[in-house]
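Posted in: Structural Biology > Protein-Ligand Complexes

Title: Requesting predicted complex, ribose-5-phosphate in pocket

I'd be grateful if someone could produce the 3D structure tokens for the following input. Sequence and ligand are given below.
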Amino acid sequence: MFNRISIFTGNAHPKLAKDIAKYLKGEVSQALVSRFSDGEVRVKIEENVRGKDVFVVQPTSPPVNENLMELLIMIDALKRASARRITAVIPYFGYARQDRKDQPRVPITAKLVANLLTTAGADRVLTLDLHAGQIQGFFDIPLDHLYAINVFVEYFSKKKFKNNLVVVSPDVGGIKMARAYAKRLRAGLAIVDKRRNTPDSTEAIHILGEVKAKVAILVDDIIATGSSLIEAAKVLKKAGTKKIYAAVTHGVLSKDAPKKLENSEISQLVITDSIPLPKEKRTSKIKVVSVAPLLGEAIKRIHEEKSISILFNF
Ligand code: R5P
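-- Reply #1 --
Done. Output follows.
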């Protein structure tokens, strides 16, 4: 297989690229991705890619602009090196939270990034738990959208909860996904009524649903400042919830989120490795589950022109 496909990575998450290549019984291909003295991104593809099916693994996680620029420039280099097809594998699609004009004179950055990727030369995109499903439509090239739900359900199923589990969505936008988790885990469903005061702070108002004396799993796509989940956990605790877990696909964990999490009502935060978790952000409350096999299987199926819907049916 590795004589027909190549997997490349920039500096965003080489470990994930390596784990994906390992799942596929191969190795990450060589590329120089560094900086010129003035900070411009310098790329040189070190292997022949003529006629190859190429996958570039690069989440656009912090430092977002650096990682995004690396991805765009790598795609440009691969295109000019005559790769047959280039798939941008973006396990975390940054700039996604600005996905509509919800105030006057604001940009739609998710659409801008989609345009940039297409202009750079991406033929396909493979991504995971987009902040909003509609972002798929911002691309005029094929996009495969995977979900981490199966990975989380496998993790929580091993905990053998008694019949006292409730899945909680920290906001109204997450109900559909929370309902899918509740169904799979045979749990109840509750929703937190959240208000965002500033981009970095939220206020949880009250809860809709039965949570008293239950074990709760808060599910969300992103944890950034942690405000949404920590505020939701406070309200859950007040309402008599026994224990609180959180399952979040993308652990952005910006600012002092890990510290705030340590002092919160959340007993354990389970995140995926869609974004690298640097040492200084690791705490005993954070558990990481891997999406490398999921992404690896999707890459294999895309290359073999097989259906990948089996990976996102839930
Ligand atoms: C919001 O709609 C998202 O689903 C997340 O709840 C939000 O991005 C989390 O941000 P923070 O951790 O800063 O509250």
